[in-house]
Structures are given as structure tokens and as C-alpha cells.
Write a structure and sequence with these properties.
29% helix; globular; eight-stranded parallel β-barrel; TIM Barrel; alpha/beta; 894 residues; Chitobiase, domain 2; Alpha-d-glucuronidase, C-terminal Domain
């Protein structure tokens, strides 16, 4: 169809405001390009949409009554002094790439105004003009944005006392009556700072995107954690590149989000040229209240500290700054010896963290960055871990190294985020114990002034949520609560290294919610339980009153069209930001907001997709690492199964973690084993240390579980283990089939792309199940359990009851005696809660029958399609193969 662009900036914009808003992008042209869209179920969709707007697409409100009420309530945008407080800009030739749809702004209030014009124009599908508010009168239906300093209207209607509790990043949104007669009403969005007002702008738009009522708004919000950062690891864990695999780039790009050294066709797109995706990212991160981003790998290349790269970094910082996004870098501890910095280099002997040489070098590098990027955050450091150099190479500990760099950058107002991901095998035989054994004594160390803890005030220890490595389920890291005297940041992985990468649909917010809401049972110096002691309370400082707090996410962004490599991976970035702002939020509520902002506000679509998302992580745990077994991924890519792998380094090897033998499965970390449990506070130490009280979903983290141990279901451990693997796959089958039912309500391109991912997801989940169960079977010496699984059934054919079906098989040969009907006359589920449907019957022999079995289990719906191949009795059943080349097993008379 012909594309026709419409604008919403026409005659309604006053002459005084016209010049100020003339450069607003697409303003409202966000609702443009409608003529090539299709109306599906009352929702305007674009069948070519690629996901590139993330959750900021702003499609027209589909409910006619709600649209009418929104239009009645909103008439215009008023932003006073929008251009007054220009942010710092170092790069004089900063510019957007030719043909860009986005634009550079010079102030935060310009960003807020542009977003409102764009967003309201799209949501209301009509012009929503912006004005400067000159003259003092507030139009009926105006949305006023600003601070008490920038806006006389805000100053008139919002007191300093109202804003005081909100801090620099918080905001309030209120519906207010005007001073005139009648039903004159308007909305004010205010913050103590312009960044706070911008956060409120996005919150207001989210309110509309999710179709919530506008009447009598009185909302205020401020973040629980001060520093809400992303670590961007470029290509290290990149599953969102624009090539077919998602792990790299095309046209000379690396696949990374930001272009620093692209070649070939993309060579003219390197920074300081600003690409659309940079601004979309900045807007999206601002919508979540993200405050900073470390832009390079923690396995750091020191090229980012060279003048040429600093100039590019300054340009990027200039583009991000209006949105409240500050920049940081990962550094290599031994960077001072890098010859690229000659003649300003040190020798290895000069890397004494207490020396003037070492601290002076880091101060000089930091000063170069500070000169170019005055709001530069500081450095993230991975030291003495996985080949990265650190203070231990020179005879010092982590406290010495962190404090040495921290002292060098403290005069510039910078912080050091020192990662605690260390596992020196000399420290302890159990990898999971090593970090606390190294960092705990430094935190407890008595200082000359009588206080405890040696880490400097501008150091934050950055610790992964669990003691291993981003597994789909781990116990929370024992350092949370044990580092009472040190600033501590939690590190979460948004990019799905071990949780399906860019293929599997795995919504991670339930994982993070589980961790953040775990009870540490932390105590005070007298051994009394702290009143606030959840992991979230430790992270936000309310438990132990650390001076600085942070939550860090390893980002999943790349240069793919949808920026994350899987349309549903966008939800993980969205959820991280929402939980970083307020870790008490419910992960299902976050999912609902994202679905409404991204896919549809149709109730059946929302309910269906939210259900898919909220069970997806538990399903992945089930088909990969059920009941607490961990790190069974193959070493080559951390994606597929590798339970039998033994690598050169034991603690990288799946067999190190599974300890499979004829007695059982799992790593004994109880008091009779490695005693990792002792690193937790006493209540948890006792709970985790006893196999009878440990949560079953963590059982193999802490115990070597006998194959015949009776589980809470009444089944032996072996049977329960196999059924969990099968259940995980059965949930993915349900997701795939359920997604197909949404086709009439989802735009064509995104529907097809997710459908293809789910097909691959189901196949790969089956591979995980089959590989692991087959490997464990060698040790258990037990048969695959049948007839007692959640979806087990027996069938009656020709008067015979037939069962014993291995739920992992994809088809089953059924011998039918000559002269007997091949029809299934009865289906007998093992559990009365199971529902079934005979989808197809065999018309003759040979023939095929299909029975669909469905059941709701503890993490969601499960589906099994039994394919029965009816064949003449006496036919060699072994010649009949299940789909995928696996023998069809287990059809026997019962």
C-alpha cells in the first residue's frame, strides 16, 4: 500500500512555540505510516514491524471508549524553558547519521517534550501540540512537565515539600483542577531535577500504553537503589547481532550496539556519528530509570583508554547525557604496562597499588576521561579471574588493588565497581566457596579508627546473584548479608548466556524476583535477626545501611533489528530496569505492562502471553538443570547440554558439578561435604545443610541425592528427575502451540519470527532432556519411569489396555491383532486433573491416532501429543522409529 506521512504539529501549535518544537522528530509523526498497516481485532498493526522501537512504539489506543476519554483529558503539552539548561556537549561535530529518524536533543526537558509529543500523538492518533506555557495560563487538558526551577506552573501547583522525598531521580504525576471555572483540569509531571521529570514523562506514557484510567492521578515514585547500571560486554556475550546466528554483525559491523571500529560498508557510521539505535536505546533506558552504562567487556581491551577512543566515547556520552545515562568503562588492572600508552607506561614492578606511580598513572587516565566526559562514572574491574591480571599477581589482595585505583579516581568523583567473580582453585576445593573466603576477611578487618572493613568508600563490590555463574536457578550468593561493612552491588545477567541465548523464550524476572525476595536471615552483632533482611534489603542498603548502593545488569543489546536478538528478550531488559528501580515489584505485573506496551492490550492476548512468560524460566530449569543440579552446559557455547564433559580445568566441567555415580547425583556442600552451607547465616545453614529440609529445587546444589530417595511427590528421586526433564519440554510444546493461536492478533513479521524461535526452542529443549536423561541412566541403572508422570496415560484398543509410554518419545507403535478395530475406545490418564482429546483416529492398519493430553502443573500448562502408530500385531516394533531417529519405546500390555 502507499505510505502517506501525517503530522500532528499543524495549526494547533502556537506561533511562539513553533520554532521551539519544529525539530521534534516524527512528533508526532509517530502515528504516521498508518496506511500500510492492517487492522487486526480492532488493533492497528504493521505486518512489517521489526521490533526496533522496543516498548516505545506508541500505537493508537484500541479501545474506542478509552481513546475518547484520553482525548477528552489530554489536549496539549506544556514545557516551560525547555531549551534553557543545555547539557554539556564535548563533540562539536556531533550529528545523526544521514537519513536518521531520531534526533539529537540538547536538554533533558526537550527530550521529555519530544517524547510526549511523539507518544501522545501515536496513542491518541491525532495532533497533540507542544507549547512553551508563556502567559501563565494552563490550557484545559494540558500535560505540564518540569521542575519548580524550570516551570512557574509547577512552582504554583507543586510544593518543595511534595518533591523533597523523591530525590534526584523521582517524580510525581498529578491531575489538578485549574484556577478557572467549570471542569478545567490538567496533569502535572514534576521532579526535583529535569531527569526526574523525564522519568515521570515515561511513567505517564506507560500509564496510557497499558490502558490505565487517567482520572485523579496522584502518583509518586523514587528508586530504591541509587546506581542502576548496565554492563555492556560488546561481543563477549552478544546474542543480538544482525547476522543469522545473532552473535555477530554484517556490513563491517561487529554486531555490537555501538560502532567504534566498523569497517567496509559501515565505516562511515562509526562514532562520533550517532545512529538511530543509540537514541532509541537512550530513550528506552531512560524510560526505566537506568543511570549508567559500562560500554565494553569486563575482559577489557585497554584501547578504550586511548585518546582516539576517548573522543568517540565523549561523543556517545554527549548523545546519552540528556536522557540521564552516564558512561563508565571496564579496565584491565595491568593497563599501565600496555605499550599503546608509551611514553606514559609503567613496569610490572611499579604496579604496587599503594605507590605514587600506580595511582598517578590511573589518575592521569581518569583525568583524560573526566576532561572529555565530566560526568564519567568510573571503572568496572575484573581482576585475578579467568586470566585477567590483578593485584594478586603482584603480591597484594583485592582490597589493596581496589583501593589503589579508587584513591586515584576519588578526587574526580569516580567510583570503582570491583567484581567478585573469582574462583582461585588454591583457595578451596569447592568453587562456590572461594569468593567469600577472599573478600569476607577484608570486609571484617579491624581498622585503626576502630571500624571494620578495608574497602574504600568509593568502591562497590559487584557480586553475581548466585555463587556460581548466572545459572537458571542458584541459591543467592552467601556474600549478600555477610559484607556488612562494604558497599555492595548485585550483578544480574540480562543477556541469556546459560538461559537460552537468542533462541529460547525465557523471561528472567521471576529468577531475579526469587533472588531479591529471598530471606538471608541476616543478624546483627548480637545475633538478632534484622527486621529487614531480604536480599533486596541488602542491595538497597536498608538492611545494613551501606552508604552507596547499586544494581548492575549485563546487557543484551546488539545491532539486530529488534536490538535484543529475540522479541521476547526485550522483556528481560525492560524487567531489569523496572526491578532495579523497585525490586519489590511483582514479575508478573511487569510482564503484563511489557506485553501491553509491546504486543497488544487485547485481554486474551495479554493473559496468554503473560502466562507463557511467567512459566518459561521454570520450564527451562526443568529441561536443563532440575532439582538443583547446575552448570551442565557444553563448554563450546554454553547453550547445549554437556553433562559428560571433563575439561582441563575441573571447575569448568559439568562432571565437577553433577558428581554422578551409582549412588546418586549432586554436589555435597553440607557439613559432611564442602560445607558451603556454613557461609550462610545460621537459619539457612541449618536448612540447606539437611537433605530433609533443603528446598527440593536446590537439593543437588547442597547434597548428593540417592537415586532411590523418596521425594515429596512420593516418587523416587530418579523418577522425579526424569519427569521434571519431560515436564520442561511439555511446557515448551504448550508455548509453541499457544503462540499459534495468537496469529490473528499479532503482526505478521514478529509472529513468524517468534514462531520459528519456538520451534527451535522445542527441539533444543528435547535435546537437553534426552541427552541428560540418557547420561544419568548410565549411573542410576534404572529404567525410564512410565505410567506415573503428570501426562501419563493408558489407552484401550481392541479391548486391551496398553500403557508404559516413555513420555520422551514422539511416537509409539501399537500392535493391533488381525480383525481388531484400531480405534482408541478409551484414554485413562494417570492423574484425574489431566484433560485429553482424541484428535485423530486410525482409519485402518497401518494408521495413526493422536491423543492430546493437557494438564496445569506447578509452573504452568503442560502438553503432550501422543502419536500412536497402529500396525498389525507381529510387525517388528523396533522398525518403527520415533520422529528424530529415536526408537519408539514402551508400548506394552498392562
Amino acid at each position: 500500500m502507499t505510505m502517506r506521512r501525517r503530522t500532528f504539529l499543524g495549526a494547533a501549535v502556537s506561533a511562539a512555540a513553533a520554532a521551539e518544537v519544529a525539530a521534534v522528530t516524527g512528533g508526532a509523526a509517530q502515528a504516521a505510516d498508518r496506511d500500510d498497516a492492517a487492522a487486526v481485532g480492532g488493533v492497528v498493526t504493521d505486518d512489517t514491524y521489526d521490533g526496533s522501537a522496543l516498548w516505545l512504539r506508541y500505537v493508537r489506543v484500541s479501545d474506542p471508549a478509552l481513546l475518547r476519554r484520553y482525548r477528552e483529558a489530554i489536549s496539549s503539552v506544556v514545557v516551560e524553558n525547555a531549551s534553557r539548561n543545555k547539557v554539556y556537549r564535548r563533540t562539536q561535530d556531533l550529528s545523526m547519521a544521514p537519513g536518521s529518524a531520531e534526533r539529537l536533543v540538547e536538554t533533558t526537558l526537550e527530550a521529555a517534550r519530544d517524547e510526549l509529543v511523539r507518544g501522545l500523538g501515536g496513542l491518541l492518533d491525532r495532533a497533540v501540540p507542544a507549547s512553551t506555557g508563556r502567559g501563565g495560563a494552563v490550557p484545559d487538558g494540558a500535560v505540564v512537565v518540569g521542575t519548580r526551577d524550570s516551570s512557574g506552573i509547577v512552582r504554583q501547583y507543586v510544593s518543595a515539600g511534595d518533591l523533597a522525598p523523591l530525590g534526584d531521580d523521582g517524580f510525581l504525576i498529578r491531575t489538578l483542577p485549574g484556577r478557572g471555572r467549570g471542569r478545567h483540569r490538567f496533569t502535572v509531571i514534576a521532579g526535583n531535577t529535569e531527569i526526574g521529570a523525564l522519568h515521570g514523562t515515561f511513567a505517564f506514557l506507560r500509564h496510557l500504553q497499558t490502558h490505565k484510567p487517567l482520572a485523579d492521578l496522584d502518583v509518586s515514585a523514587s528508586p530504591r537503589v541509587k546506581n542502576r547500571h548496565l554492563n555492556y560486554w560488546e561481543t563477549e556475550r552478544l546474542y543480538a547481532g544482525n547476522n543469522a546466528s545473532g552473535t555477530g554483525g554484517l556490513g563491517g559491523e561487529t554486531g555490537a550496539l555501538f560502532d567504534f571500529a566498523a569497517t567496509g560498508a559501515a565505516a562511515d557510521r562509526n562514532l562520533p556519528v550517532i545512529l538511530d539505535r543509540y537514541i532509541v536505546t537512550a530513550r528506552a533506558l531512560a524510560s526505566l530509570g537506568i543511570t549508567g552504562i559500562t560500554i565494553n567487556n569486563v575482559n577489557a581491551n585497554s584501547v578504550y583508554l586511548t585518546p582516539a577512543y576517548i573522543a568517540q566515547e565523549a561523543a556517545l556520552a554527549d548523545a546519552l547525557r540528556p536522557y540521564g545515562i552516564r558512561m563508565a568503562l571496564s579496565i584491565n588492572y595491568a593497563a599501565p604496562i600496555d605499550p599503546r600508552f608509551a611514553p606514559d607506561t609503567l613496569t610490572a614492578q611499579q604496579l604496587d597499588p599503594y605507590s605514587a606511580d600506580f595511582r598517578g598513572w590511573w589518575n592521569r587516565r581518569a583525568s583524560l576521561l573526566h576532561d572529555a566526559i565530566p560526568d564519567f562514572i568510573g571503572f568496572t574491574v575484573k581482576a585475578n579471574s579467568e586470566g585477567q591480571p590483578g593485584p594478586q599477581d603482584f603480591g597484594y589482595d583485592h582490597g589493596d588493588g581496589a583501593n589503589g585505583i579508587a584513591a586515584a579516581v576519588a578526587p574526580l568523583g569516580m567510583k570503582i565497581f570491583w567484581r567478585t567473580f573469582v574462583y582461585n582453585a588454591d583457595v578451596d576445593t569447592d568453587r562456590l566457596k572461594r569468593a567469600y573466603l577472599e573478600f569476607g576477611p577484608i570486609d571484617d578487618e579491624l581498622q585503626p579508627d576502630g571500624t571494620r572493613g578495608r574497602f574504600a568508600h568509593n568502591v562497590l563490590l559487584q557480586t553475581k546473584n548466585g555463587p556460581l555463574d548466572y545459572q537458571a536457578r542458584e541459591p543467592f550468593h552467601p556474600m549478600f548479608g555477610r559484607m556488612e561493612n562494604t558497599n555492595q552491588a548485585i550483578e544480574l545477567q540480562i543477556t541469556q548466556e546459560y538461559t537460552g541465548q537468542n533462541t529460547m523464550l525465557c523471561y528472567l524476572a521471576p529468577l531475579w524476583e526469587e533472588v531479591l525476595k529471598s530471606d538471608t536471615y541476616a543478624t546483627d552483632a548480637q545475633g538478632r535477626l534484622l527486621p529487614k533482611r531480604l536480599v533486596g534489603h541488602i542491595v538497597d542498603g536498608t538492611a545494613q545501611h551501606q552508604a552507596d548502593t547499586a544494581i548492575v545488569g549485563v546487557a543484551n543489546l546488539g545491532n539486530a533489528d529488534d536490538l535484543t536478538g529475540h522479541h521476547f528478550s526485550q522483556a528481560n531488559l525492560f524487567a531489569f530496569g523496572r526491578q532495579a528501580w523497585d525490586w519489590t515489584l511483582d514479575s508478573a505485573d511487569i510482564a503484563e505492562d511489557w506485553v501491553r506496551m509491546t504486543w497488544s492490550n487485547q485481554e486474551h492476548v495479554v493473559a496468554t502471553i503473560v502466562k507463557m512468560m511467567t512459566g518459561s524460566r521454570e520450564a527451562l530449569v526443568s529441561y536443563q538443570t532440575p532439582l538443583g543440579i547446575g552448570h551442565q552446559m557444553r563448554s563450546s557455547d554454553h547453550y547445549g547440554p554437556g553433562p559428560s564433559e571433563m575439561l582441563a580445568r575441573p571447575d569448568w566441567s559439568p562432571v565437577y558439578y553433577n558428581k554422578a555415580d551409582s549412588a546418586g547425583l549432586g554436589y555435597d556442600r553440607s557439613p559432611t561435604g564442602s560445607n558451603l552451607t556454613a557461609q550462610y547465616f545460621p537459619t539457612l545453614a541449618a536448612r540447606y545443610g539437611n537433605i530433609d529440609t533443603v528446598p527440593e529445587n536446590l537439593m543437588m546444589w547442597f547434597h548428593h541425592v540417592p537415586w532411590d530417595r523418596e521425594m515429596r511427590s512420593g516418587r523416587p528421586f530418579w523418577d522425579e528427575l526424569v519427569y521434571r526433564y519431560q515436564m520442561g519440554v511439555q511446557y515448551v510444546t504448550w508455548m509453541r502451540q499457544t503462540w499459534d493461536t495468537l496469529q490473528p492478533s499479532i503482526d505478521a513479521r514478529r509472529f513468524a519470527e517468534v514462531r520459528a524461535k519456538l520451534a527451535a526452542h522445542e527441539a533444543d529443549a528435547g535435546d537437553w532432556r534426552d541427552t541428560c536423561v540418557s547420561y544419568w541412566k548410565q549411573f542410576s541403572a534404572r529404567d525410564i519411569p512410565v505410567d506415573d508422570g503428570p501426562l501419563s496415560v493408558k489407552i484401550v484398543v481392541g479391548g486391551r489396555t496398553i500403557g508404559g509410554f516413555d513420555l520422551s518419545a514422539s511416537s509409539y507403535p501399537i500392535p493391533v491383532p488381525a480383525g481388531t478395530s484400531p480405534k482408541i475406545t478409551r484414554v485413562i490418564p494417570a492423574d484425574r486433573a489431566t484433560r485429553y482429546e482424541i484428535v485423530a483416529q486410525a482409519d485402518g492398519i497401518p494408521g495413526q491416532a493422536v491423543v492430546k493430553v493437557v494438564r496445569e502443573d506447578f509452573f504452568g500448562p503442560l502438553v503432550k501429543d501422543y502419536v500412536f502408530v497402529m500396525q498389525e500385531a507381529g510387525t517388528d516394533a523396533g522398525s518403527n522409529r520415533a520422529e528424530g531417529g529415536r526408537p519408539a519405546e514402551g508400548a506394552t500390555d498392562r
